[in-house]
Specification:
Oligomer: homodimer
Structural class of chain A: alpha/beta
Strand content of chain A: 15-25%
Radius of gyration of chain A: 18 Å
CATH topology of chain A: UDP-N-acetylmuramoyl-L-alanine:D-glutamate ligase
Largest sheet of chain A: 9 strands, mixed
Number of domains of chain A: 1
Chain lengths: ~350, ~350
């Protein structure tokens, strides 16, 4: 990002700690064995975009399922709220059952929901998640109306009122959404807010590498991603090389390394934080989303970076110890209990 | 029932062990404290029918929720299928998201679904379930299209092909549904099939006592109910008095007595069966439904009545040890493990 844009001017008091923008999806979660993954030629652990036919086919083949609200950035906003932070979310749903469910579940945990302008012809997006016995999730996303997000759906006032704007790489696909990201980042910076992005998926990065790289260079102050995503972004073979590059692009980068924890990268150096121990991993859905929630919660309270990462790790540990992408307990209570 | 109607004639081989008829509902499950129950003037542990306004109001007040297919008799049919039995289900849904979810979840476990004739103007029914920390569930049912079931929705061929017809008292409300029950029972008896009914809820029985009593006397061979429901049916103050009455009305009655187990009532006597021990009761939703599934599974295999009740108890124990109204493991596997 250009030096002069951060901070541009003294910021007004923020009404929200974080404003998220992402694909608004309801998760359809089902358990299956590895043979289901192989038979349907799925890539275990990845997210694949599917069209209507493929979504219908996969759903029909799947066992009985449970529906619960998901969406990467939306999960993160629920995590921020659960920690006691103030969060808003911008994402597109339809007026169907799943759209109502999605809105309800955000409001129920205190996240301000901005559903964008209505579009009645396209159903609410859904993500068919197959959880295998090793707790990995394989996601097949039918985006529906969620991917139609455009500049007109970005509520400038909400973006301006958030200390940090948090955008989800999954949504960075159609040109309208890319334009919406640029617009939202512009509004945030104009109001002296911080702009953050999660790379979401190495396939997403691969598909739009040049655009992602330009966005990161021009607009992103705080970048989230895992090792694969970061190496894909810079097309390098080592994490060290990727870190050298991202230090030049962003004021702050947080690289998750799975069970090993995470690296917090600043111009001053690299901080390594261990992951929280988890007794039994049941479903890794939402791990990265909740890590970002914890980090952002700490960051918007000006906590030391190590403490931000520790809170992220606690939030991630909670969500992978049960099925479902959002916390089942108040994270603020959990956090209070871990303070020695 | 009239002596001469059971069995009326040698029955043709049955394609299904059990054919269920009931309210096709998707459960919307959320956890809340006792203060939620008091504040909204709910009767803990009961099922209350709510109109659209009340359903919208309660849902808005509720925390984030999980959607999964439910409906009492539908849960029972899934239990029969999970035990390795052959089940079909007749119930009404709409072509909306929740209707699709409901149909999917039945088919996914191998239950033949007969959704009745389409009705596009009324949404699929849903049951808002509040689970309190004591594992009790308080149900608020918005019936939607499910309650519009009428004679035209009963697939005679399916009913004729089931060894046992199983009807759910919850549905026995509108006169069209009452007529459908009589019709289905007539088809079953004409084909030398057994007719069973679950009383479902003491409030249901209270609202339609005379009609219920006539149905039990005229048509029901096998009656399921708990103590309260049975005493309400006969308007007596003691279980013994109720048992004396039901022995006269039905060839077989199974009275569940919660953690104490159940009583199997025949003209010859009363058999008392203990409940299976459960390490930790998490959500009692579906307990009675799965008990009936286990009993019917055993009964349609001509097992001794005590063994039927024991299988019912095993199936009920599985479903109350987790959240959700349907088994999470293959009950056939569970059953095989319990055989010493």
């Amino acid at each position: 990002m250009p030096e002069e844009s951060f901070p541009a001017a003294p910021a007004a008091p923020a009404r929200y700690d974080v404003v998220g923008v992402g694909n608004a999806l309801v998760d359809v979660i089902s358990h299956a064995g590895d043979e289901f993954i192989h038979h349907h030629e799925l890539v275990k652990g990845s997210m694949t975009l599917v069209d209507t036919d493929r979504a219908v086919h996969l759903y029909a083949a799947l066992g009985s399922a449970v529906e619960m609200s998901g969406g990467s950035a939306a999960n993160t906003m629920c995590g921020v709220a659960s920690l006691g932070g103030r969060a808003a979310y911008i994402g597109k749903v339809s007026g169907d059952d799943l759209g109502n469910v999605f809105g309800h579940d955000l409001r129920a945990v205190g996240v301000q929901f901005r559903p964008g302008t209505p579009d009645t012809d396209t159903p609410t997006g859904r993500c068919i998640i197959v959880v295998t016995p090793d707790a990995q999730r394989t996601m097949n996303t039918y985006l529906g109306v969620s991917s139609l997000l455009c500049v007109g759906d970005i509520d400038d006032e909400t973006v301006a009122a958030g200390a940090v704007l948090y955008m989800e790489g999954y949504l960075y696909d159609r040109s309208e959404a890319k334009e919406a990201f640029r617009h939202a980042a512009g509004v945030a910076h104009k109001n002296s807010r911080m702009v953050s992005l999660t790379l979401s998926d190495s396939f997403c990065v691969d598909r739009h590498r040049d655009d992602f790289r330009a966005l990161v260079t021009d607009e992103v102050d705080l970048l989230f991603g895992n090792e694969d995503e970061l190496m894909s972004l810079y097309q390098v073979d080592s994490l060290d090389a990727a870190i050298a590059r991202v230090r030049h692009d962003c004021a702050l980068a947080v690289v998750t390394t799975g069970p090993a924890g995470c690296l917090v990268v600043t111009p001053d150096g690299v901080l390594r934080i261990a992951a929280e121990p988890v007794a039994r991993v049941l479903d890794t859905t939402g791990a990265g989303d909740l890590f970002a929630a914890g980090f952002l919660y700490g960051y918007t309270r000006s906590m030391p970076l190590g403490e931000c990462a520790r809170i992220g790790s606690i939030a991630a540990a909670e969500v992978i110890s049960h099925v479902g992408p959002r916390p089942l307990v108040e994270l603020s209570t959990l956090l209070a209990e871990t303070k020695g």
